Amino acid sequence: MEKSLRLIAFEILHKIFYSGSYSNIALDNALDNITESKSFVSALVYGVAERKITLDYYIGKYLKKPAKPKVMTVLRLGAYQILYMSRVPNSAAVNESVKLAKEIKLDYYCPLVNAVLHKIADDKEILTDNSLIYSVPENLLNMWYKQYGRETVEGFLPNINGRPPLFAIPNSLKTDNKNLVKLLLDEGIECENIGKAVMINSAADIGSLDSFKKGLFHIEDLSSYECASVLNAKENDVVLDICSAPGGKAFTIAEQMNNKGIIYAFDLYSQRLKLISNGAERLGIDIIKTAVNDGTVFNDEIPKADRILCDVPCSGFGIIRRKPEIRYKELDSVKDLPKLQLEILTVSSRYLKNKGTLVYSTCTLNQKENERVVEAFLNSNSEFSLINQKTTFPEKLGGDGFFRAVMMKNEN
């Protein structure tokens, strides 16, 4: 018997909440096995994952004691449909949740599921607390308030939930924005030219598009694209991309170099390098050379470079609309990251030629991983000077949260 869509969503969410699975990986694996209504399953999974705090608040109002994990997942699915999916009638959300409980052998809890969801459907409370409105843990919210100010934070909070924008970066070796828009429209994809990229406005299986298979574009967040662009790589440069996988920035850099010169793309894991080499082959880029490398250890086989991109591992608080479970990380779990980031940045800087450009970047919103790391590096490396640095906050129709710092190495 074929699984119901809500059962598929339930199984994915249960892995995310109780087995530590990553939302994008768990969802992609599950969607490979279904042919229809993928968007509905995706909406349920990402919606419940990102709204967990709010959903738990409403559910908790009508429970006398904590529910068992499977029951809680069923209640979250039902509550999400009631509170956030206007196209699903409340009656259907309740009835389908009761049916789901039976489907997973939780018949005993069907009356509880029915009662709690009916009460949530009748709940008229207007939320005023930002943690509940946007489903952000209070400790993360307070960190942002302290570092960026309440006005700035309240400006980007509305943009951290919901379907994130999707950007196609035209492969300048083969096409341009105008022609790519025409081709995508011919393939039935709603899109628009936004100058730096092409914004895709309709759900689609990107990998199946003829334009994608022909290497006319790659998918990359706008903030990531801008980070790669500020490296300002030129034809015949030697460029190092220290933590490169999955390779979006390397592709952008190679195209801006007109596929002339050389880019060394490194990663700690060999299987991730395949993403880069496969993408480069599809795009017709042949100047990217991949290799396994530990960014914390100096490698004297790596040549001196004109430009270096050091996009380090980070807490990811800038991309929570793409990976909603990241927001629930304990802040203590990422406290050692600045030490690792500084170590990678310091080692990477040793490969740079005099007058070369070094870009340090993260996809997080945490000054301890961003400005403080750059400050510590500059304090210990007087031959480097800061050209500029920028924090980008999530925009509804723009890029994710991102930080970048551009530095130059001065002659000794």
Describe the structure.
It is a single chain. The chain has helices spanning 5-19, 23-31, 38-50, 52-61, 69-84, 90-103, 110-122, 130-134, 138-148, 150-156, 177-186, 210-213, 222-229, 248-256, 270-283, 337-349, 371-380; strands at residues 166-170, 191-193, 198-200, 217-219, 237-241, 261-267, 288-292, 305-311, 352-362, 384-392, 402-409. It is α/β, with parallel strands linked by helices and 412 residues long. The strands form two sheets. It has a seven-stranded mixed sheet with strand order 7-6-5-8-9-11-10, sandwiched between helices. It is globular. The termini are far apart. The model has no long low-confidence stretch (mean pLDDT 95).
The mean pLDDT is 95
- The number of distinct helices, counting runs of at least 4 residues, comes to 17
Please tell me what the overall shape is. globular
What profile does the largest beta sheet have?
7 strands, mixed
- Give the strand tally: 11
**What portion of the residues fall into strands of 2 or more residues?**
15-25%
Please provide the ordered H/E string of secondary-structure elements.
HHHHHHHHHHEHEEHEHEHEHEEHEHEE
Helix content: 40-55%
- Poorly predicted runs are none
Structural class: alpha/beta
Radius of gyration: 23 Å
Sheet with the most strands: spatial strand order? 7-6-5-8-9-11-10
Please report the distance between the alpha carbons of the first and last residues.
71 Å
